[in-house]
Amino acid sequence: MTVSAARPTVAVWKFASCDGCQLSILDCEEELLKLAGAVRISHFLEMSRASVKGPYDLSLVEGSVTTQDDVARIKEVRRVSRVLITIGACANSGGIQGLRNFAASGQYASVVYAHPEYIKALDTSTPISAHVPVDLELYGCPIDKTQLLSVLTAILAGRRPRVPGHSVCQECKGRGTVCLLVSRGTPCLGPVTRAGCGALCPSVDRGCFGCFGPTDTANTGSLAGQLRGQGLAPVDTSRLFRTFNATAPAFMAESVAQGGAPPVTPSDPVRESAEVD
Amino acid sequence: MSHGSRGDRTISVEGLARVEGEGSLRVEVRDGIVSDVALEIFEPPRYFEAMLIGRHFTEAPDITSRICGICPVAYQMSACNAMEDACEAVIDERIGALRRLLYCGEWIQSHALHVYLLHAPDFLGCADAVELAERAPGIVERGLDLKRTGNLVMETVGGRAVHPVNVRVGGFYRAPSPESVAALAEPLFRARDQALATVEWVSGFDFPDVEADYRFVALREPGRYAIESGRAVSSDGLDLSPAELAELVVEEHVARSTALHARLGGRDSYLTGPLARYSLNSSMLPPLAAEAAAGAGLGPVCKNPFRSIVVRAVELVFACDEALSLVETYAPPEPPAATVVPRAASGAGATEAPRGLLFHTYDIDESGTIRRARIVPPTSQNQLTIESDLRQVAQESLDLGDDDLQWRCEQAVRNHDPCISCAAHFLDVTIESS
Q1: Which residues pair with B216 in a beta bridge?
Q2: Boundaries of domain holding A173
Q3: Using CB atoms, which residue from B21, B47, B140 is nearest to A109?
Q4: ipTM
């Protein structure tokens, strides 16, 4: 996964999301202008009204796929992108809006809208990788901007970018944070959550809630057993696994094992609305 | 893209740039009269109010912060206020002060982003801040430095700039150390000077001579410029608690449109955000910000939407100044959070997000499980007004060529810093123009 152009073109795309991962790009305050010099930012709506047509050397994709139009749009984005990197929990696992995958068809729309028949959305929120091949996934809710910069730097230098596969526990050890799970019995997803944030939550006396999603080898069953032994009810353990990466396979399986509703297989994939003009 | 003969024109922008989220705008001109305008939002809904049902009341701040990466603190604070209202929790003054400091960080970050990266390029004919930086690198660097200080405040108090991790119902997980808070003084002094320079810079822009007859709504508190608490007041005399406000705001889901149109008290549109805050509360600004406003030529009320960039810059001065005072008087709350015991009740919470009033209401049961949630973000409240601005600005700018008219229309929308990501989770919208 390398880009060969001297000043490669970069596009940033948004699907269903909060904009926070795109904002992390703009949050690279010190590096933003240098970055804009090293690459050509050719399509980034949040930042510029100038947009250059593709193909692009590199696309960064935020958000999950939740509409039929977006199913087509992500295919088009893939077609015009030499390298495609997904950024954040929504793009990689379906995000918090993936909670709809556990609800009956149409149930969520009927809570929010008086006339759910006008709403044109899929019953599921799915990661980008469910639709097109993805070259690299950058994790987090939101992503870590330092990690983003190191990945971009690696790609520009023709090196293979590295994303950690180990757990938040190692980051706690690294910064000398006493283990909350062991010393205080605080429920913590650190043992099964991918490193990358720098173990922020334990450093403020809070258990990890899994922003970066499961590690490659997450032993969620063992952690659930530990939490049960500490008196956490299964319903609470299930909720703990069911937030911003609720539909990441390892977290989803454990939340179901703890009694959470299983995902619903959509029978009616798109409810075409009364045409909106 | 725009086309048409002199009397009949269509301006349409498919992907509206430099706003948070994705939307488009369309203006139709027939026989020299603007006949139709639409701000369309094609972001898909994310159904937050449905996701929250069945969750524990303590989860609302983290879950709702994911509505918007640009103003997560606003969501966290409104959710905390609502839950604490439901549970009748008493919050220590020191916790209140720390919340206000965190919120100042978000105002600085979000306003610096909007002023420098999203809005100013319009006034200077640049496609974006990168082009602006080619002409005036020092200015863009100043804006990015200001933004960085806002983020630094959020990181120090909240643990992370986007989706802070340290906020909980009742207060904070851990109070930041006095040393780490004291270290904010130096960058905040610099930021305050940069904010003053920002006011001077933007007040020299060329503003179209437009005034709109706004109905303003903002929070107000005795003795200070309201951010994280207060009662909702309006320019036509309403004075409401957050719960009363929530009762009076009616959102309609209209046939042929998926917009939820927010109307207040049975009347038409209203405007929240910097223009409303400033116009209703300019007398509450502390001296430095008040002097900056006067120096920039702002009267006590500002009804020119293009001048919202000046108001935002004045609010930057205020937020830096206020944050400095809070840093100087900081004493760690002990304990960092009040104990909040759930009970079967309803609660309402309202705060001033950088782009306007944001309120939440919840019903929870005695176990603390959320039974009903309602979240009304600023952009859904402002949408009808943004459209009427678009109509007025377009009508008064018909002498412009198509490209310039298109740009002016885009600007009419960006004046209000709409957060489409926020709004879209509640309205999958095509706005019906009135």
Answers
A1: B271
A2: 168-257
A3: B47
A4: 0.93
